[in-house]
Amino acid sequence: MAVFTPVGMTELQTWLQQFSLGQAQSLEGISSGIENTNYFVSTGQGEFVLTLFEKLTSAELPFYLGLMDHLAQAGLPCPSPARAANGDLFAPLNGKPASLVTRLQGRSVMQPEPAHCAAIGTMTARLHLAAADYPAIQDNPRGPRWWARTAPQVMPFMPAAEQALLADELEVQLTHRLDPLPRGVVHADLFRDNVLFDGMEVGGVIDFYFAGGDAWLFDLAVVVNDWGIDPQARHLPAHCQALLDAYQAVRPLTDAERRCWPTMLRAAALRFWLSRLYDLHLPRVGELIHPHDPSRFRDVLTLHREGKLQWNL
Questions:
Q1: Rounded CA gap, 274 and 267, in Å?
Q2: Any idea where the domains of the chain sit in the sequence?
Q3: Which CATH superfamily is domain 9-102 in?
Q4: How many CA atoms lie within 13 A of 210 on its CB side?
Q5: Which stretches does DSSP call E strand in the chain?
Q6: 3-class SS at 108?
Q7: Along the 313 residues of the chain, how does pLDDT read in single tens digits?
Q8: How far is CA 168 from each of CA 108, 195, 260, 265, 294, rounded to the nearest angstrom?
Q9: At what angle do helices 237-250 and 114-130 cross, to 10 degrees?
Q10: What is the CATH number of domain 114-305?
Q11: Per-position b or e across 28-50, b if 16+ CB within 10 A of its CB
C-alpha cells in the first residue's frame, strides 16, 4: 500500500464522476505496504479506500474484487467495492486500473492478546467456508510455482548458509505441496496489519490481493506464523492455542491436515521469507516504500525446521 502513482484532487474528482458517491472531500496517501498505491478518500457518501493497482491487470482484477463483493454479501466484514455506472468494479485512473472500496471500522492490533487471536481464528474459518462457493478460479499467485521462479533471483544477494537453507527447504516443499488437503479460496496474507479490530471484535479484513486457491491449511499456517509468533520470532503458546481452538470450533481439521501441519508451517514461513527477500533486493522505484525485514521469516522457518514450536491440534 505504498504510493507509487500520485493522484491529485482534480484527477480524483473527474474519476469519481463514474460513481454515484458525491464529490471528494479529502485525499490522503497510505504509506504502509509495498504492492499497490492506496489513498483514504472521503466523499459526501462516506469513507473509502482508493487503490491503484501497480501490478495486477484489468484481466486479473475481477477475481479479487468479485471475491470481496462475494464475502461482503455473505456477511463478512470485508471491503465492499463500489460499482461504476457501467457495472464495473474498477476503472482506469492515471494509467492504472483503480477501485474504490468501503473503509471499514477499527484499527490494526500489532500486539494482540490471546482473545484477539481467538477472534481471528474464528474469522479465518468463516472466511474459508464463505468463499467455498465463490465460482471464480485462480491459483495462489505466490504459491510453489512463484517460489521456484523467485528463489534463483534472490540467491545472489544471500550469504552461502542462507542459500543452502533456502535450496533445501524449497526442495522439501516442492515434494509436499501435492498432499490431498481440503482446498478453496484463501486470503494468503492475513497478517496483523490486514485485520481491523473494533474493540475485541473483528471490524474488517482487508487487502485480498494475494488471494487464490490453495489448501486451507496453508492459510491457517500463514495466520499462525504471524499472530502466534512475535516480531522477534518468539513463540506465543497461548496466542497460538487460542487461535487454533477457535478455528477448529468452526471448521475442525482433518487427520490429513494434522499430519501435514508441521510442513505447512514451514511452507508459510518460506513464502514470506522469499517475498521479503525479493522486495528488499529487487524493489521498484516508488514513494513511501517500507520493505519488511526478511530475517524474521528466515528465523521462523528455522524454528519450525528444528521442531521448537509445538501446538495441540
A1: 11
A2: 9-102, 114-305
A3: Phosphorylase Kinase; domain 1 (3.30.200.20)
A4: 21
A5: 24-29, 37-43, 46-52, 91-93, 96-102, 183-186, 195-198, 201-205, 212-215
A6: coil
A7: 467 899 999 999 999 999 999 999 999 998 765 678 999 999 999 999 999 999 899 999 999 999 999 999 999 999 999 999 999 999 999 999 999 999 998 999 999 999 999 999 999 999 999 999 999 999 999 999 999 999 999 999 999 999 999 999 999 998 886 678 999 999 999 999 999 999 999 999 999 999 999 999 999 999 999 999 998 899 999 999 999 999 999 999 999 999 999 999 999 999 999 999 998 998 866 544 567 899 999 999 999 999 988 777 8
A8: 35, 33, 18, 16, 18
A9: 30
A10: 3.90.1200.10
A11: ebbeebbbbbbbebbbeeeebbb
**Other C-beta atoms within 10 Å of 306: how many?**
8
Q: What is the dihedral of CA 67, 70, 72, 75, to 10 degrees?
A: -130
Q: Are 242 and 117 in contact (CB under 8 A)?
A: yes
In the numeric block, the cell 484527477 is attached to: 11
Instruction: Give me the DSSP letters along 141-193.
Output: TTSHHHHHHHHHHHGGGS-HHHHHHHHHHHHHHHHHTTS---EEEE-S---GG
Q: Report d(CA 165, CA 167) in Å as an integer.
A: 6
Give CA separation, 83 vs 21, 80, 193, 310, in Å. 10, 9, 26, 46
Count of positions (residues) in the chain:
313
Of 52, 43, 42, nearest in space to 7 by CA = 52
Q: How far apart are CA 278 and CA 122, in angstroms?
A: 32
- Do the beta carbons of residue 117 and residue 241 sit within 8 Å? no
